[in-house]
Design goal:
heterodimer; A: 678 residues; mainly alpha; Cytochrome Bc1 Complex, Chain C; 4 domains; elongated; B: 186 residues; alpha+beta; 2 domains; 4-stranded antiparallel β-sheet; 16% helix
């Protein structure tokens, strides 16, 4: 077969294949081969080097965020009642959701580190110098965009930690002169945090900022190509090519970055596996705390570690008043950015370049020191030897840090007082750190509980997970108890080591296990009934019940031990805490004794035994939810203590318009005391 | 048949017409683009005209629940709340510290929001002072600054009144944080 040229020697095998022909066709219409050549065939003066990989790893990290972010977006729902819920669903229910979220979360951290390295390399190599000034400025803008994305993305899961940390961040934004308050209100989406905070943060995080970033990135890369790679001087090796020499190094670095990110996500899971445990994949990767609650302060609120230095920096300005916060949050960071923008101009002088390098290294050192200080303040209790400061701790509490009192406390020994006073700052720091760690522990427990509640088969109600948490006796009960009941009542397991101290400090009955046979057994024990766990610290200390237990009940002619035990199990059954193994006739015997007007029934109403109310509390349904709600609502009701009520407030009976506790709260405390929760 | 005639060269030299064409193109393009941008920005600025709930007296608790021992106690502020389209019937919207001196029938109220950066101020163990867990701003029980403190001003006092039936009500307001003056948010 002859070809069109008529040369007659071309064989069929030399005719281009269909792929090549398709390539040719597209090339003639688009010129794609030229584009690829331009992208790949770049000369690298002095050959490929590892130190040039940072820019490429950043582009890779950004691409990772783009990909994982889009997929996260496909499952995320931005509103105050659905944000946490949808993130919980991604993390705990969706197949591979933990991995997707983990990569997005930790790659964001990696990006901050890579930015620092890229900046450091550019400044040290002087790669910002003419004609690359504009490109350096673009890089700084890109850095601010990335930090902006980190800040806005942090809030999106809408958990306690990010909610409270971001509130601080937006309050600081309000400090910018003139426009601050308006900017704050625009970003927050109104006067308060809510739906529009999330819709806006999502739009900024996933729309405005990345779109702007892509724009700047394209120009940044185009300018990088226009000026060529700024080679490390002096050039001692032969030139290399971007493709494949430098790109190989770049891709190896990218893989390494991804390996580190995967390592951070997976190492805890692998360790669990190696230890023979079963991995709960929902707990692998990024953490999720309890849903944001505007009414519940979060004492462990901290920004993400890469912003900790700014957080710590605010503490530097103690005692500066309003100007301090303005300086720390706005002026100094602004000046630092200004100096960085001036670097390419300063760098025209040899001394200027040295200044730039010193400034950048100094900046990073400062950031490292501040971050270290912040971590030290929060976590120092973990590594401080508390024993060493035990005496100073005790004296600090006793003297409230007062010098005169301290001198008196150590018997006038001025030298010793001085030595101890010297430890006070450490003691104070230790105490703060312990408070932080305790808050962190509570926060973790709250988070775990919220996740547990969200996973109930009934699902999350339309009102959101916060509704679940607020209606949860296990998490709300102890808080309400501590706030309203704990100043008198103890709630401590008598077998625990600190029970004695807790009971000694209480002034009303220990409600731990109230309604159980064990509790009732203690009440009917002559040794205990007038002790601190029962009536010992109350007005009923010498009352009829104490008298009955210590006198009448000791007469084992009338009260055979088996009878007492029958009363105990009958009362536990009344409270719904009965043991299924208890013989029914024993309970029946107990009920008979309780009702009898010659036994308990002589004072107590029980069912329809006919005893008048008012002399002693009604034992009908004793310890049940209804009974507890009743006594908490109004202990002065004739069913309970009537006019012999000691000091207990009527929590549900309002003199004005506001009862001390709402019906719902009383229900929560009752359920918690009864140990009834999901 | 070829009906393609060579087009005349673009007219050159009429710089006035040229300028008008360029200017018109810019105006047309600019105006066309401005419409979606303006519509977007207009809606985006909506939060600026949103006001917080008007400062009103909200019932907090009863006088008997505020012990007259000079030690502040924390109380939740519960109110109706609107979050864009969601209306909450009764929700905790913040917290106040109420404090009553020995034998007094009046109550002092401090908002729990830290004037430094808006975290929740906590009562120190032993109830000797307040401290903010975020940046360590410290305050006396009366809300005054304990130096050194990063806070620019003392804790914000709220107007508080005790009704005839003993109901304690507080005028609930939010203030700008981080500035020396106590300025209520609109």
């Amino acid at each position: 077969m002859k070809d069109a040229s008529g040369m007659g020697t071309t064989t069929q095998s030399r005719r281009p294949g269909p792929v090549t022909r398709l390539g040719d066709f597209l090339d003639s219409r688009t010129g794609w081969r030229g584009l690829v050549r331009e992208a790949l065939f770049e000369r690298v003066p002095g050959g490929a080097r590892w130190r040039y990989v940072w820019g490429s790893t950043l582009v890779f990290a950004f691409m990772t965020q783009l990909i994982t972010g889009l997929f996260l977006w496909a499952s995320y729902s931005a509103s105050a009642q659905t944000a946490w819920e949808s993130v919980w669903y991604i993390q705990h229910e969706m197949t591979g959701g933990w991995l997707l979220r983990g990569i997005h979360h930790f790659m964001a951290h990696a990006m901050v580190v890579l930015f620092a390295l890229h900046l450091l390399q550019v400044v040290i190599d002087g790669a910002y110098r003419a004609p690359r000034e504009v490109n350096f400025w673009m890089g700084l803008v890109l850095m601010m965009l990335v930090l902006g994305m980190a800040l806005t993305g942090y809030l999106l899961p809408w958990d306690q930690k990010d909610y409270w940390a971001t509130r601080v961040a937006t309050n600081l934004a309000g400090l910018v002169p003139l426009v601050g308050p308006a900017v704050q209100q625009l970003v927050v989406g109104g006067p308060d945090y809510g739906h529009h905070t999330l819709t806006r943060f999502l739009a900024i995080h996933a729309g405005f900022l990345p779109a702007t970033l892509v724009l700047f990135l394209v120009v940044h890369l185009a300018l990088f190509r226009k000026h060529g790679l700024h080679a490390k001087q002096p050039i001692t090796r032969p030139d290399g090519m971007f493709w494949p020499d430098q790109l190989l190094k770049d891709t190896v670095a990218m893989l390494a970055v991804m390996a580190v990110v995967l390592g951070v996500i997976l190492v805890p899971a692998v360790r669990t596996m190696l230890a023979g445990g079963e991995v709960d994949w929902g707990h692998v990767g990024a953490e999720l705390g309890a849903p944001a609650d505007p009414s519940l302060p979060y004492a462990a609120a901290r920004p993400e570690w890469y912003f900790l230095f700014l957080f710590q920096f605010l503490k530097v300005f103690e005692g500066w008043g309003a100007s301090g916060e303005f300086l720390g949050a706005i002026v100094v960071p602004g000046l630092i950015m200004a100096v960085m923008f001036l670097m390419p101009i300063l760098g025209n002088w040899k001394l200027g370049h040295r200044f730039n390098v010193a400034f950048t290294i100094g900046l990073f050192a400062g950031v490292a020191v501040l971050t270290g200080l912040a971590l030290d303040e929060d976590y120092s209790a973990l590594w401080t030897d508390k024993q060493k400061h035990a005496e100073a701790t005790r004296l600090f509490a006793e003297t409230e840090g007062d010098e005169t009192k301290l001198l008196a406390a150590v018997g006038g020994d001025a030298q010793r007082a001085a030595a101890i006073a010297k430890q006070f700052p450490t003691v104070e720091k230790l105490r703060r750190s312990e408070a932080f760690l305790a808050a962190l522990k509570t926060a973790r427990a709250d988070g775990e509980r919220a996740i547990e509640l969200a996973g109930r088969p009934e699902g999350i109600p339309p009102g959101g997970a916060l509704e679940l948490v607020r209606g949860d006796p296990l998490s709300q009960g102890p808080r309400l108890f501590a706030q309203h009941c704990g100043s008198c009542h103890a709630h401590v397991d008598p077998a625990s080591p600190d029970a004695e101290a807790v009971l000694a400090a209480s002034s009303a009955a220990n409600l731990y296990g109230f309604g159980t046979a064990a509790w009732m057994r203690g009440l009917l024990d002559p040794e205990q009934v007038a002790g601190p766990a029962y009536f010992g610290n109350t007005a009923h200390k010498d009352g009829e019940m104490v008298n009955f237990v210590q006198e009448d009940l000791q007469d084992d002619e009338t009260w055979k031990p088996a009878d007492i035990e029958a009363v105990i199990v009958a009362m536990a059954a009344e409270a719904g805490h009965g043991d299924a193994a208890t013989p029914a006739d024993r309970i029946a015997r107990g009920r008979e004794l309780v009702a009898s007007d010659e036994r308990c029934g002589s004072c107590h109403r029980f069912g329809d035994n006919g005893t008048d109310l008012g002399a002693a509390c009604d034992l009908t349904g004793w310890g049940s939810r209804e009974w507890l709600v009743g006594i908490i609502t109004d202990p002065t009701h004739e069913r309970f203590y009537g006019d012999t009520n000691d000091r207990m407030p009527s929590y549900g009976k309002a003199a004005g318009s506001v009862p001390l506790l709402s019906d719902e709260q009383i229900g929560l405390v009752s359920d918690w005391l009864r140990g009834e929760w999901y | 048949m070829n009906n393609h005639r060579p087009s005349p060269q673009p007219a050159a030299g009429d710089s006035r017409r040229d300028f008008l064409a360029k200017a018109a193109a810019l105006v047309c393009g600019g105006l066309a683009t401005l419409v979606p941008v303006a519509a977007g920005v207009w809606a985006f600025l909506d939060p600026l005209r949103r006001k917080g709930a008007a400062a009103t007296f909200l019932p907090i608790t009863e006088l008997s629940a505020v012990p007259d021992d000079g030690v502040p106690r924390q109380f939740a502020v519960v109110s109706e709340r609107m979050d864009a389209w969601t209306g909450f019937a009764r929700e905790p919207i913040g917290a106040v510290y109420l404090c009553r001196q020995k034998g007094s029938q009046t109550v002092e109220a401090l908002t729990a929001t830290c004037p430094h950066a808006g975290c929740f101020v906590e009562l120190e163990p032993g109830a000797r002072s307040f401290r903010c867990p975020c940046h360590n701003s410290a305050f006396t029980l009366a809300g005054g600054i304990v130096e050194p403190s990063p806070s620019p001003r003392p804790m914000d006092a709220l107007e508080c009144r005790v009704g005839e039936s003993g109901e304690v009500a507080v005028k609930w307001e939010n203030f700008y944080t981080g500035i020396a003056g106590k300025v209520a948010r609109p």
